[in-house]
Structure to design on (555 residues):
């Protein structure tokens, strides 16, 4: 019994991280038709922001030693600033380019960020414990110890999703974003400012990336210049199988990918457990063959039917 | 009469193909002006150039005393031009009220907004009934009313409408034109309407322009053209002069 609860908690917490990352990607895709492959690097930068920019082998704690509230705010500010800067320097000049060009632009940005991290912080992994209490505090559930962190990850994700929905549904800015996501030209003809809405999407995406940075770093305890990349890859897959252009789809996709990975991790015989991702990606291909439009139909897809 | 909108010799290209050439249109304050012409004449192109979605390669667009050639769509909207483009363009994911609220986002005069809101809902009672429904669920006619109402809520000085009659039952088209004429008469709203049907245009407009093959073939007071013969010739290109222009255009 306890073991099953353990697997469920792990599955939901991994799914939550993927869902949060997928939401960050989905928001930008909705407004800008940009598949932002640099999203994983935004996540990485959020974690690196916690230490003093220095080349040495050890991590010198900086924001990481702040009071948790200040820590969260500072990390979000840093990542949001980077997201806005990326918009200004990379994506604004490409605004009227094709979706493919935008995507290639995001690849380039991703390389630039990774190499900047190597130049400033060096490419060596650095150990950094964040909020170690969260993994130390455990609850005894049916004979198995469940740490606080995965429960926190699930809780934070749910709260953020509710906040995002409230924002999008019930604030004028949120309504503007939804309008722009559906029909950007018409929205502009009614006075919706393109720069504002797009910047807002980058702010939200950056803030979500920062939260993922902190939760992921608390779990991982190590800084690596490509730590965000696997999250980005899984989150991207999540948005694809969830249905591009649908935020609900991003969440459903993220949760599904996380849950399937965790179940495979727990269920596969130990000899082939190392090849878990092969099975995950195999299932993804299967889903795409059976339902190429994604699990949740977005508006655009539905209209064509 | 002072010209509120002045389009002066614009040429607009889609990549290398010129969709309109050297088109000049003037709309005076409080006027209803119709641009008529067959499919592909460049009517929509002209309107999209006014609203800043397209940029002309030559010529200028002046609104009031401001040159708005090549301005952003949102800035054009903020100067007081509200466009109802072809194909209605309701936001289907938003409900009827949210669609209308988007129309008010540029305004800060709260009490006036509420008054206009009430006016629009009185004008189109069906929108009041369906306030909370997704706009995608409305019928074609209801969607047309919604986009006109939404455009009105921006409190435009000039409203441009692309084919208000497209895909609507004649009875509903009558109603739409009735509303538009009423708006001009009561509120002094200036209207530039693109229309395929020359009869409709001659009935509703003060002045009309006939656009074919990307060029203005004829313009004049609707009163003087009411028998429709000249308009038909310009529209279809049967007269010798129009034929000649047609050859040049291709």
């Amino acid at each position: 019994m306890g073991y099953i609860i353990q697997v469920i908690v792990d599955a939901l917490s991994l799914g939550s991280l993927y869902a949060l990352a997928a939401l960050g990607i989905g928001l930008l895709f909705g407004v800008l038709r940009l598949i932002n492959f640099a999203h994983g690097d935004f996540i990485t930068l959020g974690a690196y922001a916690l230490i003093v920019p220095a080349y040495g082998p050890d991590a010198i704690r900086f924001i990481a030693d702040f009071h948790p509230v200040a820590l969260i705010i500072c990390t979000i500010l840093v990542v949001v600033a980077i997201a806005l800067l990326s918009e200004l320097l990379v994506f604004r000049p490409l605004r009227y380019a094709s979706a493919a060009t935008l995507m290639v632009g995001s690849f380039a940005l991703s390389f630039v960020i990774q190499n900047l991290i190597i130049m400033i912080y060096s490419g060596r992994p650095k150990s950094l414990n964040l909020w170690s209490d969260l993994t130390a505090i455990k609850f005894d559930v049916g004979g198995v110890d469940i740490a606080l962190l995965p429960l926190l990850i699930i809780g934070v994700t749910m709260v953020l999703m509710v906040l995002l929905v409230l924002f999008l549904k019930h604030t004028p800015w949120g309504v503007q974003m939804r309008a722009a996501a559906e029909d950007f030209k018409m929205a502009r003809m009614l006075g919706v400012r393109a720069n504002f809405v797009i910047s807002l999407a980058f702010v939200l995406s950056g803030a979500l990336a920062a939260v993922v940075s902190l939760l992921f770093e608390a779990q991982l305890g190590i800084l690596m210049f490509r730590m965000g990349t696997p999250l980005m890859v899984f989150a991207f897959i999540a948005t694809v199988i969830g249905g591009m252009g649908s935020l609900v789809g991003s969440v459903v996709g993220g949760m599904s990918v996380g849950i399937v990975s965790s179940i495979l991790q727990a269920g596969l015989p130990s000899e082939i457990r190392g090849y878990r991702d092969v099975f995950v990606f195999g299932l993804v291909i299967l889903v795409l063959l059976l339902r190429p439009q994604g699990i949740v139909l977005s508006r655009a897809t539905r209209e064509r039917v | 009469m002072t010209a509120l909108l002045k389009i002066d010799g614009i040429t607009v290209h889609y990549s290398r193909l010129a969709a309109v050439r050297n088109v000049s249109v003037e709309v005076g304050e409080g006027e209803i002006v119709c641009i008529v012409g067959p499919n592909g004449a460049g009517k929509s192109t002209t309107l999209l150039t006014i609203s800043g979605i397209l940029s002309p390669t030559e010529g200028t667009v002046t609104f009031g005393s401001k040159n708005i050639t090549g301005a952003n769509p949102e800035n054009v909207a903020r100067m007081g031009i509200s466009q109802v483009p072809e194909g209605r363009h309701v936001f289907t994911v938003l409900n009827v009220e949210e669609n209308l609220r988007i129309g008010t986002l540029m305004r800060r005069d709260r009490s006036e907004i509420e008054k206009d809101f009430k006016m629009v809902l009185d004008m189109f009672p069906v929108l009041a009934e369906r306030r909370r429904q997704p706009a995608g669920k409305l019928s074609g006619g209801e969607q047309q009313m919604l986009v006109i109402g939404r455009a009105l809520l921006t409190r435009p000085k000039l409203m441009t409408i692309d084919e208000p009659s497209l895909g609507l039952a004649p009875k509903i088209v009558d109603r739409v034109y009735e509303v538009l004429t009423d708006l001009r008469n009561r509120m002094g709203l200036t209207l530039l309407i693109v229309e395929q049907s020359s009869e409709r245009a001659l009935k509703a407009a003060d002045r009309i322009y006939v656009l074919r093959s990307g060029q203005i073939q004829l313009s004049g007071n609707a009163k003087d053209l009411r028998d429709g013969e000249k308009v038909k010739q310009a529209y279809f290109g049967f007269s010798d002069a129009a034929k000649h222009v047609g050859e040049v255009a291709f």
Chain B has one domain: 3-249. The longest helix of chain B spans residues 170-187. Chain B touches chain A at residues 51, 53, 72-74, 76-78, 82-83, 85, 89, 91-94, 98-99, 101-103, 105-106, 150-151, 154 (CB under 8 Å).
